[in-house]
Amino acid sequence: MPELLSHKxxxxxxxxxxxxxxxxxxxxxxxxxxxxxxxxxxxxxxxKMLTQSSSRIFSITMRTPGDDEQLILGLLLSxxxxxxIDDIESIAIEQLDSxxxxxxxxxxxxxxxxxxxxxxxxxxxLERYQLTYSSCGLCGTTSLKALELKSPPQSPAAAxxxxxxxxxxxxxxxxxxxxxxxxxxxxxxxxxxxxxGKLLLIKEDIGRHNAVDKLLGAxxxxxxxxxxxxxxxxxxxxxxxxxxxxxxxxxxxxVLIAVGAVSNLAILAAKRFDLTLIGFTTCESFNLYHGEWRxxxxxxx
Length: 301
Prior knowledge:
Blueprint: E1 6-15, E2 18-27, E3 30-40, E4 52-63, H1 68-78, E5 88-93, H2 98-101, E6 110-115, H3 144-149, H4 164-167, H5 170-176, H6 179-184, E7 188-194, E8 199-205, H7 208-222, E9 232-236, H8 242-250, E10 255-258, H9 264-272, E11 276-279, E12 287-290
Parallel strand pairs: 3-6, 9-10, 10-11
Antiparallel strand pairs: 1-2, 3-4, 5-6, 7-8, 7-9, 11-12
């Protein structure tokens, strides 16, 4: 396991009244600063004015280092800033001067994304300094109206393809591939499955939102999502909040399967955007909260 993702530390274990000193591997956590550079559109009243280049801090989020490019792409996709990989002119570690470097843990924690001229950025959505944490994601955007304003893609229309017998095994298939969790026991995972039950991609991070963003960013790069000819499901190792539903909807994925519970707002969002939402998933059972029309007919029906 790369040292960047986990760190070795001493620990004292108490068990059955006995004290033992040993070593442990703990998950790494560092801040990621994302700077967004874009072209401001000229005012209608002054059409001769040249397009101006602008740059602002978009977000600071805590994450496990690694797959930063995919995390950033997934976050921009789920927030409605971009809709396609071609909306990105460049994405790279930001070039900082000495005064800026003093406030950053290391230079690889600060990235800059340059958008193409065709991308129209909603300036009002960038006005506040968005400080986010690995446990809560982008707070302050949790409303159905906010999601509607992001113009999410149409929910995939294919029906009767999700197998109730096989999907219960998908979390275990994901768990078997969680190398970072195996080492540290301290991270979440998000994985993409196709209708045949094949695990296509998996990403891990200390934050459940970050794991999802890394997965969606990788999917965007590989052009796996937003394709009408492919039925996809995302499986996550955690509970489902509204933000996780938002990310799934904005990626054009029709099925979200969770190991944990789902919130009431997550259910309302799933109903509003016709997402198949499943929680408390085990090999023996699961709870389906919306979108049963994607399920294959049960043998008991």
